[in-house]
Write a structure and sequence with these properties.
Number of strands: 0
Shape: globular
Order of helices and strands: HHHHHHHHHHH
Strand content: under 5%
CATH architecture of the largest domain: Orthogonal Bundle
Low-confidence stretches: 1-14
Number of domains: 2
CATH topology of the largest domain: MetI-like fold
CATH class of the largest domain: Mainly Alpha
Largest sheet: none
Mean pLDDT: 86
Structural class: mainly alpha
Distance between the termini: 25 Å
Oligomer: single chain
């Protein structure tokens, strides 16, 4: 091949990749919207054709009305979704930060020390094997019906994914890279910061992706057991008066929050672990 042609081909390759990437994103968005439209249509037809009572499964339009009645109000209104949603989000975020921080620290310590691994790993798996639905009432009894119990349950649920993923990622470093750092007289902290932590970053973000959803679930579970505000309280109050459309509206909001949190973690991952994104191409 002529050198000029080879150079032009190498220059056009990144352009083709950059053009292809937005097209894939647009196609994925259209597929998602089409799937949502099919789901709503099937839902509406099932209710109409099977004559399902509204107290069992409301029509999509009834859910939209209930959703609009909670959103078309002032942000500080007690009848809207904004204050409960903000309370749930804040408690989930604090619990997520505490749980993931503790999981990363303990996972790093276990990856660096076999003794700490043998000491802590059995207890970590024992704690994870306990049903959280059984632990949650105890936490509510110990910490009360305030924000403390919700934060604690959110932290507990988000702890284990980060613990295991960070431990696995830190242990997955190639021995040759560790030997290279030793030959350069690098300290254990420098080896951790330069080699091990970047290698474990994709594993850690995979754990964060799970933990952010678990933190939200933990907060909702605590609100079900007893709380003064939050989306779990909204759902409980709607169930008490058989407002099934209101329950569905709250579930739609929680689902949208879960999607946004997932997208936020993925976007942060692409910015931080940019080399992994390039390898996927």
């Amino acid at each position: 091949m002529h050198p000029t042609a080879a150079a032009s081909a190498s220059q056009s390759a990144p352009r083709n990749l950059s053009r292809r990437k937005p097209r894939r994103a647009v196609n994925t968005s259209w597929i998602t919207l089409a799937g949502l439209a099919v789901l709503i249509a099937a839902w509406w037809l099932s209710v109409r054709l099977l004559h399902v009572p509204s107290y069992i499964l409301p029509e999509p339009l009834a859910v939209v009305r209930a959703l609009w009645s909670g959103l078309a109000v002032a942000p500080d209104s007690a009848t809207g979704y904004y204050l409960p949603l903000w309370s749930t989000f804040c408690n989930a975020a604090i619990g997520f930060a505490i749980g993931t921080g503790a999981g990363l620290v303990l996972g790093s310590l276990m990856a660096e020390s076999r003794t700490i691994e043998r000491l802590l790993m059995p207890y970590a798996f024992a704690l994870q094997s306990l049903p959280k639905v059984a632990i949650a009432p105890l936490i509510v009894i110990w910490l009360g019906f305030g924000d403390g119990s919700k934060i604690a349950i959110a932290a507990l649920l988000s702890f284990f994914p980060i613990l295991i993923n960070s431990f696995t990622g830190l242990r997955a470093v190639e021995p040759e890279r560790i030997d290279l750092m030793r030959s350069l007289s690098a300290s254990r902290l420098e080896t951790y910061r330069i080699v091990k932590l970047p290698n474990a970053a994709p594993y850690i973000f995979a754990g964060l992706d799970m933990a952010v959803v678990y933190a939200l679930l933990g907060t909702i579970v605590a609100e079900f057991l007893g709380a003064q505000r939050g989306m779990g309280v909204v759902i409980t109050q709607a169930q008490a008066v058989t407002d099934v459309a209101g329950v569905f509206a709250a579930l739609v909001i929680l689902g949208a929050m879960g999607i946004l949190l997932h997208a936020l973690v993925r976007r942060l991952e692409k910015r931080v672990v940019h080399w992994a994104d390039r390898n996927k191409r």
